[in-house]
Design a protein that fits this description.
By secondary structure, the protein is an alpha+beta fold. It is built from 12 helices and 11 strands. The strands form 3 sheets. Strands 1, 2, 3, 4, 5 and 6 form a 6-stranded antiparallel sheet that branches. It starts with a helix and ends with a helix. InterPro entries: Aminoglycoside_PTrfase (IPR002575), Kinase-like_dom_sf (IPR011009), Pseudomonas-type_ThrB (IPR050249).
Length: about 350
């Protein structure tokens, strides 16, 4: 996908702004004296690898996109992270206090606050969607981890329900107040495709209304357990980037885990492996499996909205192809109630 000169210039200006903010932010952490930064990812936020020049110690700095989360919402994310670290065996990246004794540092740029957070660095590499056999094996472990997160959410429900995070339901995903934008504004939305996706969205909404939001199936979730937010080191899988955690259906975490690869032929094997791991920790009635297609396709339409409203390396690579490859899934769901 070729970008226009104006788009390239806009992207460069945005990255330059975030780089300036990051360089200011690291000075707010006394332990980062004499450190360098390197941009790792630019998506909802700008994420940097911070490296101390003398010792080589590594950290992760996240510079939040203005207006995406409030400070109390970000503080709630960090509370959940620390709770997971204290009460489970799941390895997560933890926040680090700044010189003022707070986890979230505020950098003002052109009279706008940017919230910056420093995290511990975790070793590992993201799973590869190209290594089918290995990925299927890893999904069994991911299923276990996801179930552990859900058990933690349920067991700590009274405490966690008090934190301030977004609710991921139909309205905020595909409805009238979509957090990631409207799928109708996605790339390659033709009149015929808009009609197809509208019918699909209506079916999703109808099925979710029947599914309900009982405490055993709706609570605090990671909501973005895609491959890019997992780190594999030997046999261990670590979970990063809780930036989009919120209250949603537990089954949505399964849908999120196959983000961008929903159309791949090996996805049914991923789901089978995930289920095997999940049921080692937490029961999941077979009748709930009937709604897997609903959650997967809801996530897929949400990603179409995300691709259409963001400008980063991932969205440029996906382009119109991602929307076009959704047609087959949408038709199977609409007319057969399944995806594979």
């Amino acid at each position: 996908m070729k970008l226009s000169n104006s788009t390239v210039d806009s992207l460069h200006r945005s990255l330059d702004k975030f780089n300036q903010i990051a360089n200011v932010a690291i000075r707010l952490y006394p332990l980062l004296t004499k450190s360098t930064i390197q941009l790792l990812n630019y998506s909802e936020n700008a994420t940097y690898l911070v490296k101390k020049t003398v010792t080589g110690e590594k950290y992760i700095l996240r510079v939040g996109r203005p207006g995406y989360h409030t400070k109390p919402e970000m503080e709630s994310e960090l509370k959940w992270l620390k709770s997971i670290d204290q009460d489970s065996s799941i390895q997560v990246s933890l926040p680090i206090l700044g010189g003022n004794g707070e986890y979230i540092q505020v950098v003002n740029y052109v009279n706008e606050p940017y919230y910056c957070t420093l995290f511990t660095f975790l070793e590992g590499d993201a799973p590869s969607e190209e290594n089918e056999k290995e990925l299927i094996s890893q999904f069994e472990k991911l299923g276990e981890i996801t179930a552990q997160l859900h058990e933690h959410s349920i067991n700590k429900g009274e405490k966690l329900n008090q934190i301030r995070r977004i609710t991921w339901d139909f309205e905020t995903i595909l409805g009238s107040t979509p957090k990631w934008g409207r799928w109708q504004d996605g790339i390659a939305i033709t009149p015929e495709r808009a009609d197809l996706f509208t019918k699909v969205a209506e079916k999703i909404n109808s099925r979710l209304e029947k599914f309900g939001k009982e405490p055993h199936q709706f609570g605090l979730i990671h909501s973005d357990l895609r491959l890019a937010n997992l780190l594999v080191e030997r046999e261990q899988i670590k979970v990063i980037d809780f930036d989009d955690c919120g209250f949603g259906w537990y089954l949505y975490d399964l849908a999120a885990s196959i983000s961008f690869i929903e159309h791949k032929s090996y996805v049914p094997d991923l789901i089978t492996s995930w289920l095997k791991g999940y049921r080692k920790v937490r029961s999941l009635p077979e009748e709930l499996e009937l709604e897997f297609p609903t959650f997967i396709l809801m996530r897929r339409l949400q990603l179409i909205a995300w691709v259409g409203s963001r400008d980063n390396e991932t969205t440029r690579e996906l382009g119109s192809r991602f929307t076009e490859e959704t047609d087959i899934l949408a038709k199977k769901y609409l007319y057969e109630g399944k995806l594979y």
